[in-house]
Amino acid sequence: MIGIDLSGKAILITGALGAIAEHMVRRLHEAGATLLLTDIKAEQEAKRMLDEWRIPTSSYVYFTADITDSVQVSGLVNRAFEQFPTMDTVIGHAGGCELHPFATTSEIYFERIFRFNFFAQTYLARAVLAQWTQRKIAGHLILTSSYVARMPHSQISSYASAKAALENFARSLALEYALTGIRVNVVSPANVAAGSALKVFDEDPAYREFVLRVTLGRRNSPESVANTFAFLCSPLASEINGQILSPDYGSGIGNRL
Fold this sequence. Notes:
Blueprint: E1 10-14, H1 19-30, E2 34-39, H2 43-52, E3 60-64, H3 70-83, E4 89-92, H4 107-135, E5 140-144, H5 157-177, E6 183-187, H6 195-203, H7 205-214, H8 222-233, E7 244-245
Parallel strand pairs: 1-2, 1-4, 2-3, 4-5, 5-6, 6-7
């Protein structure tokens, strides 16, 4: 049986305290990785949550940061590389939204959703890629998208547009940095039974019907998403670049829309 051993590897994860991220953090910790975790929550709250997840303090470093602020992102990336100068894997996981019909979503809030789900990831990429280029590290940047980048629901126009932009951005970076050995990939699950997606699925009948129709009646478990990230972080994925990996049960097959 092929196992995944990430012992000796340091991995930076943004959005590290979310519902799906919990399973990612658990899985990567089980594989032996040292985790550099960042979220907007204060350090005391983060420690409480990580204690509940049974992640020992010896296996992670936590940074509080607002990833929609490029100055804060640059600062946390600099601190991460100061502590782990050879770090070669970064996961841009932060993102999310609730239903926001275009007609009733203010201009400010629409842009805030887009900034959180797209521009914040470009801030992370810019800071990390600069470090890898300067240090001549063949790093691996992994971004989190969603199946709605290709199958948008009617009430998530900013979020779906941001994820579509993110996937194209990742492929563009893969092309630009290919000769440096730096790789960029995306994990794009279908509807996951956790976090805000679970809440909307439970509360909105139209969204629930849409999800069950386009996902062939099966939703993703957060564990399956975590396993996809663990695979991409491992040597098993060393020749994967510029790809959108979709642990989605084949969502959209047969054009069920």
